[in-house]
Write the structure tokens for this entry.
Amino acid sequence: MIPTYHQLVYAVTRQVPKGRVTTYGAIADFLGLGASRMVGWALNNRVDDVPAHRVVNRKGELSGRHKFATPTLMAELLEYEGVKIENDQVVEFERLFWSPAAELGDDWEFPG
DNA sequence: TGTTTGACCACGG
DNA sequence: GCCGTGGCCAAAC
């Protein structure tokens, strides 16, 4: 079957290691979609298996925190994984940034 | 079936 | 360096 946009986003998001973060744009670019907005939209359908809290915007801000059970849950989950959050923003975001294109490679494909 | 809406990003002023 | 605007594409209405 042809994976939908959500499934691609979910699959990539699941690859994000604990304690690391990535951006909507990075995922969109990796998938060759060009529409980073869709990544956020897809994660809006928050699925339990997907660590959506590891996805932030290009500034490292927790722009999607309000879509969690509580607005602070996203920060709490990240801090629990060792990612410090300050003022709704990932501390040392550039250092913790995880690039799917660099880590998975261009030949990565949707599993299943 | 056409319009509106997004957890965004890049660019120009 | 901040603010406004356009563009991107798929789902919901």
Remarks:
- The first helix of chain A runs from residue 5 to 14.
